[in-house]
Amino acid sequence: MPNIIDVSDLSYRYQEAGSRVLDHVTLSVKQGEWLAIIGHNGSGKSTLAKCLNGLIQPEQGNVVVSGYNTKDESAIWKIRRRVGMVFQNPDNQFVGATVRDDVAFGMENHGVAREEMLQRLDEALKLVKMEAYADQEPHRLSGGQKQRVALAGIVALQPLIVILDEATSMLDPEGRRDVLETMKLLNKQRGLTVLSITHDLDEAVHADRLIVMNEGKVIRQGTPAEIFQHAELLEEIGLDLPFAVKMERLLRQRGLEMTERPLTQEGLVNALWTLRSTM
Amino acid sequence: MDITVNHVTHTYQPGTPFMRMALNDVSVAFPSGSFTSIIGHTGSGKSTLAQHLNGLLLPSTGSITAGDLTLEGGSKRKKKKINFKALREKVGYVFQYPEHQLFEETLLKDVAFGPINFGVPQDEAGRRAKACLELVHIPSAFWERSPFDLSGGQMRRVAIAGVLAVQPEVIILDEPTAGLDPRGRKEIMDLFDQLHRQQKRTIIMVTHNMSDAALYSDQVVVMNHGSLIMAGSPAEVFSRDEALQRIGLESPETMQFIRRLAEKIGTPQPTLSAFTMEDTADAVLKLLKGDAAHV
Amino acid sequence: MFNLVIGQYVPMESLVHRLDPRSKLISMFLFVIIVFLANNWLSYGLLILFCLASITASKLPFQFIYRGLRSVFFIVFLTFILNLFFTNGGLLLFSWGWLHIYLNGLIQSIFISFRILVIIVITTLLTLTTSPIEITDGLESLLHPLKRIKLPVHEFALMMSISLRFIPTLLEETEKIIKAQAARGSDFTTGSIKSRFKAVVPLLVPLFVSAFKRAEELAMAMEARGYHGDEGRTKLHRLVWNNRDTVLLLILAIMTIALILFRY
C-alpha cells in the first residue's frame, strides 16, 4: 500500500525559547490502515495531528500529504479537503445551525456544486445513522451524535484520511461505542484511512498499527501485539495497559504460562481455555 | 452527616411544552462515612439527583434530609427560608469539568474563595488553601501563579482543592475523571479514596465508569429514566448482570471477564464478585482448577 | 433557571412559512415605514386587516402572537397614557384638577397604540415563521450589493448565524458556572448591590475564558474544514423567489398607495 502521509524529521515548538513539543518525528501513514497514536497528555500527539493538515507549520522537517507539502500555500486547501479532522470537544466544532447545515459547511467551503452537495449530504448522514436528525439543532444532540455529525461532514468531502484527535474522550460510554463503530465501518467498508489519537487502549488494540509518543518523540512503532510486549515501558511513561494484558501478566505471576499474549478479553478467554485442556 | 432522599420527584419547566420529569419518586439514603456511586445513562437523572443533595435543585415533591436540615418539596417549602449556605458548607460539590469554574488571579486566592464565602477568616482560609493544594500535589512554586497557566489535569486538581478547602463532610463528585488521561484519572480517584478511608468523608460520585464504581464504593445506586432501579453493595448490583444489560449498562471489566471465562469452560456462573485485578486473577485460577463452587 | 425559549421560530407548514425570507424582510421594513402614513380610522383599519390576514395565513395560534405582545403591553399603555394627557385640542372630554383629556388626545392615543401594536405583530410574525438561518440568508442576499463598497456582508451573516447557534450552549454553561460557584458559597441573589456586583466576577471570568477558548477551537475547526471566506464558496440554502413573493410585494405596494390616498 502506498503512503498517503509522510512525515520526515518534523520538529516544532510553540515558543521560540520553549522546549520542543515535537522532536524530530518521522513516520508514515499507509493507505487504508487504522493507525493509533498513544501517549499521555502533553506528549505532542495533538500538535502532530495539527501538522498533518497544515493547521501548524513545521519549524523543521516536512509533512507531505498525497504528494502535497503542507508548506506549499497553494496546496493547503487541497490538503485540508483530503485530511478530515474530528476534534475533542463536540460543541466547539459544530458550526451549522442544524445537522444538515453543519454537514454541508465543509462542502460549501470547498465549492461543491449544490446538486452534488444534496446527494452527498443524504448519503453521509445515512452512513453515520443520523438521517433522522437532519433538521435538529446541535443543543438537542448528545456528544456522540455531534461527533457523528462531524464525521458525516468529513465523509461528505470524500477525504483520504480521517484524524480523530481524542474525539471520544469527552463522550459517555454509549457515545464512544457509537463513534467507534461508525469509524470501523468507514475503515473496513469504505477503505478510509484512520489515524486515531487516543488514551483508550481498548480502542488502540484494534488498530492495525500503533505509534507511541513521549515528550515529543516517537518511541515505538509496531503492531499492537509488538507494542504491548513491552508493558513495563508503557507503564513507565504513564500509559495504562489493556485489561487482557494486565490480566495475562497477573496470571503469569501466578504460574500460568500461556503460549501467546492476547490483547483482548476474548483472546485471553480462548487462550485460557486452550491452556485448561492441556492441564 | 447522613443524607436521606424521601420520595423525591423533580419536574423541569413545569407547565410548558418542555416539561420533563427528571426524577420520579426516588428514595435513597447516603449514610455518614459511606462511598456511594450513582450510575446510569446520560439523561437518566444521575446529576439531577446529585444536585438535590446540596440544594442546587429543589424537589418538586418529596423531601431531602441532610443532617438536621430538611428541604421540602412543593407548597410546604415557601413557608420557611432555607439556610442554603449552612447546607453547602457541609456538602461540597465537584462539578463535571470543575476547572471551568476557576477565576481568581492566583491559585491560592481561588482555593480560598470557598472558605472566605463561608465566613472563614482570611489567614485561616489561606492556611487551608495551602494545605489543600499540597493535598492535590500542586508544587508550591505554582501557588502564586494564575490558574490559567496550568495544564488541564492540574487545573482540575486546583478546582477540587477549592471544594476541599471548605472542609465539607460530604463531597459530591460529578464525573471527576472525565476527559483525563489514565495517569490523571488514577491520581484523582486515589485522592478521593484516601479522603474516604482516612478522613471518613462521605462521598457520592456520579460516574459512567463501572470499574471505579465497583472498586471504590460501599453502595451503588442505579438510575434509569429518572427512576431508581436498584441500590446495594457493588457485589449485589453487579451480580445482576441481566438487569443492568436491559437498561444498557455493563458490568465492570473484571466481572465481564470472569463470566465470559465461566461460560467458555461451561461451569455454572460464579456467584461471588471480584473487582480488583488481583482478586480476578485468583478467581480465574480457581475457575480453571474446576473449583467453581468456591469462586 | 433559563426558561426562555431561544429563537421564537415555530416550525410549521403555512403560506407565510413558505415565503422567501427576502420578500418577508422587505415587506416587514416597508410595513414599518408605511405605518407612519396612517392618520385616520380607514388607514388603521387597513393595517389591522393586513395583520389579521397575515396571522391567519401563518396558521399560528393567536396565543403565540399574544405571548409576543404581552411583554410590550406596558410600553403601549405608557404611550397611551402620555398621549392621552398631553395632547390638546378638540372637545374636552374629561377634566380633573390639572388633568384634561381632549377628544383629539384620545384618538391620538388610540392611533399610536395601534401603530406600536401592528409593528410588533408584524415583526413577531416574521421571527415566528422564519428560522434564524433563513433570516441570515435573506439578509446576506439583500445586503449583497453592499459588498461592492467593501462591506463584509458574508462575514456579518456568518457571525450572526454562529452567535445564534452558540446561544443555547453559552446559556447552559452560564447555568453550570452559577451552580458551581453557588456550591462554593457564592451568592448572587442576596446582599448589598456592592456584594452582588462582586459575586458576578466569579461568574464572568470563567464565562469569558471559556468563550475565548471556544472561539479559538471553533476557528481552528473551521479552518480544518476548509473555510476561507466566501471566495469560491457554494451554498446549501438556495433562496427561491416565487410568484407568492411577488404577490406579497404587490400587496404592500397597493397598501402604500392606498395609505397615501386615504391621507388626503
UniProtKB/TrEMBL annotation, chain A:
Q: Where is the signal peptide?
A: none
**Entry EC number(s):** 3.6.3.-
Q: Which Pfam families match?
A: ABC_tran
InterPro entries recorded: AAA+_ATPase (IPR003593), ABC_transporter-like_ATP-bd (IPR003439), ABC_transporter-like_CS (IPR017871), ABC_transpr_CbiO/EcfA_su (IPR015856), ECF_ABC_transporter_ATP-bd (IPR050095), EcfA_1 (IPR030947), P-loop_NTPase (IPR027417)
Q: Where is each ABC transporter domain found?
A: 5-240
**GO MF entries:** ATP binding; hydrolase activity
Q: Which SMART domains does the entry mention?
A: AAA
Give the record's keywords alphabetically. ATP-binding, Cell membrane, Hydrolase, Membrane, Nucleotide-binding, Translocase, Transport
EC class: hydrolase
UniProt xrefs under SUPFAM superfamilies: P-loop containing nucleoside triphosphate hydrolases
Q: Which residues cross the membrane?
A: none
NCBIfam families given in the database record: ECF_ATPase_1, PRK13635.1, PRK13648.1
For this chain, the family text in UniProt reads:
Belongs to the ABC transporter superfamily.
- What protein name does the entry list? Energy-coupling factor transport system ATP-binding protein
- Natural source organism: Sporolactobacillus spathodeae
Cite the source lineage: Bacteria, Bacillati, Bacillota, Bacilli, Bacillales
TrEMBL record, chain B:
A Pfam family found in this protein is ABC_tran
Question: Is the Transport keyword given for this protein?
Answer: yes
Recorded topology in the membrane = Peripheral membrane protein
Q: Which InterPro entries match?
A: AAA+_ATPase, ABC_transporter-like_ATP-bd, ABC_transporter-like_CS, ABC_transpr_CbiO/EcfA_su, ECF_ABC_transporter_ATP-bd, EcfA2, P-loop_NTPase
Q: What is its main location?
A: membrane
Q: What is the superkingdom listed in this entry's lineage?
A: Bacteria
Classification via CDD domains: ABC_cobalt_CbiO_domain1 (cd03225)
Family to which this protein belongs: Belongs to the ABC transporter superfamily. Energy-coupling factor EcfA family.
Q: Which NCBIfam families match?
A: ECF_ATPase_2
Q: How does it assemble?
A: Forms a stable energy-coupling factor (ECF) transporter complex composed of 2 membrane-embedded substrate-binding proteins (S component), 2 ATP-binding proteins (A component) and 2 transmembrane proteins (T component).
Per its record, how is this protein called by name?
Answer: Energy-coupling factor transporter ATP-binding protein EcfA2
Its taxonomic path starts at: Bacteria, Bacillati, Bacillota, Bacilli, Bacillales
TrEMBL record, chain C:
Xref: CDD domains: EcfT (cd16914)
What membrane topology does this protein have? Multi-pass membrane protein
Name the major location: membrane
One Pfam family name is CbiQ
What gene is this protein a product of?
ecfT
- Describe its partners and assembly state: Forms a stable energy-coupling factor (ECF) transporter complex composed of 2 membrane-embedded substrate-binding proteins (S component), 2 ATP-binding proteins (A component) and 2 transmembrane proteins (T component).
- Entry's family note: Belongs to the energy-coupling factor EcfT family.
Q: What organism is this sequence from?
A: Sporolactobacillus spathodeae
Which residues are listed as membrane-spanning?
Answer: 25-52, 72-99, 105-128, 246-262
Q: What is this protein called?
A: Energy-coupling factor transporter transmembrane protein EcfT
Q: Report the protein's function.
A: Transmembrane (T) component of an energy-coupling factor (ECF) ABC-transporter complex. Unlike classic ABC transporters this ECF transporter provides the energy necessary to transport a number of different substrates.
Localization per Swiss-Prot or TrEMBL? Cell membrane
- What keywords were assigned to this record? Cell membrane, Membrane, Transmembrane, Transmembrane helix, Transport
